[in-house]
Amino acid sequence: GGTREYYPSPAMVEAISRCEGRRITASELRHRAGDGHLRRAPSPLAAGLRGRTLDGGELLIRQAVLDRQHGRAIGPAHDRWRAVSMLRARRSNAFTEWDGNLASLAVDGRVVLQRAVSPTSLEQYGACGFRYFGRSLLRLNVVEEPDEREMMEPAARGNLIHRILDDFFKAQKARGRPGVGEPWTGDDLQELIAMTQARLHDAKERGLTGLDVYADHEQRTILADLARFLEADNVFRAETGAVPSEFEQAIPEVDIAGVTLRGRVDRIDRSPDGTRAWVIDYKTGSARDFEKMKEDPLLGGQKLQLPTYLGAAAGAERAVALYWFITHKGGFKQVPYERTAESNERFEGTLRAILAGIGSGSFPAVSGEEDEYYSKHANCHYCDFDRICSRRREYEFVAKQDDPALAPWLAVATAARGEGVG
What's the helix, strand, coil split of the chain in %, to 5? Predict the structure, then answer.
């Protein structure tokens, strides 16, 4: 089916050897033309249309071919009418209900936002309408299989590091530390190591760390990352003069462009006089997906956390929100976002576009750019709904972009770039 040649299976080699009364090698059988006991069909479909039917699937294929040859139309009364309708719709140039066009439901007001939403859920809509529809509107969740983990999963690793740093900074704040420009000491590092080992032991007890051979390496990597982060934190506080002030702080719910946003920030640093604030969101993965934020701070509507998190810096005259990549994988980079009149207008325009897109029922499946390294598309690599999405989604999305029903979703990226705002 993939136009690749394969060696015959051992079972086939053994069967042909018995038929011919001598030992046949896989190489000989592979290069033999169709003769004697072996029939070589021009394609898998042709093989299913010749000789006796082997299963119900082949019988259905033959019936479909006969229907086509005799000009018999597949109408609403046909058993496979819905399946055929889906294929025809998806392969057309129209943005249909099979592609995520739920405009008919939107008319009745059945496609609405919750009362308050997180910026992360709205980011999902900016990346892929179908992912947002599955997770935030249908509330679908992946069923975790109780299998044997070989390595700690990235999400579990990230949550673990977040909890360790939360424990560490809260313990230090209770002691009135650190002061302005005060560096972390070797004793502080040892305390952080002890907290990490305790958290890792608890994770191991719950089966989250994987096999021991990998868990030991994971522990060394996490400890090395945290030690390096303390050094980076010394530099950051020395340059800004800021002091860690609040941790796991809830954002005051506020209505922006008709959307009520909520969430929590990992950490807020403030200047001693309280006039400046730095709202920090820790990231433990790669910074690759954030590289284009210098040119497009909202990344086409896919990065909305930082402008939302600025709401947690109440009382500060000037506030900066930043993603801080706190592992070797992310290079300990910082991606800042500062509110200006232009950036605020873009942010509000993007939220209005998202709200309009959801309200119109526009939920296309969008694969994003192709990732040649992983041989997958960017939006599909870690998507929970990959297996229930159309296999031809990247081609179908391109073919349907001129349909006016898709315009509400496309308007999100336009607003995020500051085009046509207002």
Answer: 50, 10, 40
